[in-house]
Amino acid sequence: MASKKIELDHKDMVHDSAVDYYGKRLATASSDSTVKIVSIGAATAPSQVLATLTGHYGPVWRVAWAHPKYGTILASCGYDGRVVIWKEDARGNWSQVHAFMDHKSSVNSIAWAPYEVGLCLACASSDGRISIFTMRADGGWDTATIERAHPVGATAISWAPATALGSLAGSGELVYKLVSGGFDSVVKVWGFVDGSWKLEGALISDMHTDCVRDVSWAPVLGMAKSTIASGSQDGKVVIWTKGKDGDKWEGKLMRDFGAPVWRVSWSLTGNILSIAAGENNITLWKEGSDGQWEEVMKVEP
Fold first, then answer.
1. Nearest to 58 by CA among 14, 106, 9, 95
2. Where are the domains of the chain?
3. Contact 98, 90 (CB under 8 A)
4. Gap between the Cα atoms of 171 and 192, Å rounded
5. Is the dihedral angle over the CA atoms 215, 262, 99, 151 positive or is it negative?
6. CA dihedral 287, 249, 213, 22 (to 10 degrees)
7. CB neighbour list of residue 110: distance below 8 Å, 6 or more residues apart
8. HSE-up of residue 214 (Cα within 13 Å, Cβ side)
9. Shortest CA distance to 96 belongs to which of 51, 151, 44, 150?
10. According to the model, what pLDDT value does residue 232 have?
11. How far apart are CA 193 and CA 195, in angstroms?
12. Where are the annotated WD repeats, by residue (predicted)?
């Protein structure tokens, strides 16, 4: 497969990028306070910057596309404590449709809920709180907050799949759960019960000894267990698994990369784990039948 170079034209470091649902466009977040939308289209066509979005006052850490069912919507978060919702109109013009200023310090991570749950964005902030913004039918937003989620600062957030274990898609009740990571080296699982978010479990272990940089809940797709990956400043990636409700989460060290782990993300089928660690080191991993993880690919920068 031929690789393709994409010119972004950012004036400073790029912290995050996200490809849209159709694989046609890339959104990027940078220390230059902007978000850029870039066409990535066909391998032969030159990529071009379609829009530069300005609305942050400081580095932008993350970008996330909403499901196209809700229109062309992008969320961004940054050092300024702002979470901005951007929308593209029919003519291809982007505008800032909402800015949440609920957080008192840097918002480090954002994640859209599975589309079945609704248009719903979870945010993790250095102020220790997690906020969940849900769009109402009238276009307004409801806000729920988990106070003191990680008192020294929340760094990472990810949603559980909307489908319960062992059930077919579209049947049964929807699952409302989140996993978060913090500067406290702890991974926590939250569940939405009786109208509010409650701590379901703090996955405390001696495996992470430094800030949890990212967490990612694997898609279910007929799996018999729930799986979460966490990556830390300490270089370690831990795989957490849990069987049916009532079982305990169990953590297993997948690998020590010997350099900070920035990102962990699952493929859509949940069987490949992508890990970004150290300087430009991106690798893909798969779990063998013996439970051992093996590297299947190295992405060359």
1. 106
2. 14-259
3. no
4. 19
5. positive
6. 60
7. 62, 64, 75, 76, 77, 83, 121, 122, 123, 124, 157
8. 24
9. 51
10. 97
11. 6
12. 53-87, 205-240
CA distances from 297 to 218, 226, 286 (A): 19, 24, 10
What are phi and psi for residue 150, nearest 5 degrees? -135, 95
Q: In the chain, count H helices and then E strands.
A: 0, 24
Q: What is the pLDDT of residues 147-201, one digit of tens each?
A: 999 999 999 999 999 987 766 655 678 899 999 999 999 999 999 999 999 999 9
pLDDT category at 122 given cuts 50, 70, 90 is very high
Tell me if the pTM is above 0.90: yes
Q: What is the largest CA-CA distance in the chain?
A: 53
CA Rg value for the chain: 19
CATH number of 14-259: 2.130.10.10
Minimal CA–CA distance to 38: which of 46, 29, 23, 48? 48
Evaluate whether 152 touches 184 at the Cβ level (below 8 Å).
Answer: yes
CA 253 from chain centre, in angstroms, equals 21
CA dist., res. 112 & res. 159, Å (int): 8
Interacting residues of 279 by C-beta distance below 8 A, sequence separation 6+: 259
